[in-house]
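tokens incoming
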């Protein structure tokens, strides 16, 4: 999605710089507009490569969290088996969107059964709503009060990361193309 937004901005910026390079009367400004296309191609590639590397780092952390948790839901303590199969989800305790510095941190991930994961996000207002350790603790207290190990773990995570302030995701995105 970010790549598509950036690509649209990139195309429009290049088109504008080409048109200005042809229509401007001051030579220095025309040359600057010609340079924009060269620099923007390199910049676009750097941004896309960095975003791809970041996504790969997050996926690697999710895999590691599931392995650490032995593919076991940390709330229900159920493990996928031949007779009881389910998909495990690595859930960001502190939302990856609002806390991007914690998105690839294994300590910020907890393994949940996919249906428990969906249940939490529904309870919390949807997948687009940011979440924190407090939200997951409240969810557990309401829906899974016997999940003592998960509650203990969340309190530890809260001690580790509770001082982090959310980072507005809008700071990391370019404005939409007009």
């Amino acid at each position: 999605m970010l790549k598509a937004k950036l690509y649209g901005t990139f195309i429009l910026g290049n088109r504008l710089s080409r048109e200005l390079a042809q229509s401007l009367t001051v030579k220095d400004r025309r040359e600057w507009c010609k340079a924009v296309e060269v620099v923007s191609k390199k910049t676009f590639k750097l941004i896309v490569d960095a975003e791809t590397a970041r996504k790969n780092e997050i996926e690697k952390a999710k895999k590691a969290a599931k392995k650490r948790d032995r593919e076991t839901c940390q709330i229900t303590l159920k493990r996928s088996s031949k007779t009881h199969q389910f998909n495990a989800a690595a859930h960001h305790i502190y939302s990856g969107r609002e806390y991007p510095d914690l998105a690839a941190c294994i300590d910020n991930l907890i393994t949940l059964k996919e249906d428990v994961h969906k249940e939490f996000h529904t309870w919390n207002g949807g997948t687009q709503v940011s979440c924190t350790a407090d939200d997951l603790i409240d969810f557990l207290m309401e829906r899974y009060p016997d999940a003592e190990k998960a509650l203990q773990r969340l309190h530890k995570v809260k001690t580790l990361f509770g001082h982090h302030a959310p980072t507005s995701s809008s700071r990391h995105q370019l404005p939409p193309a007009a």
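note: Residues 27-68 form the longest helix (42 residues).
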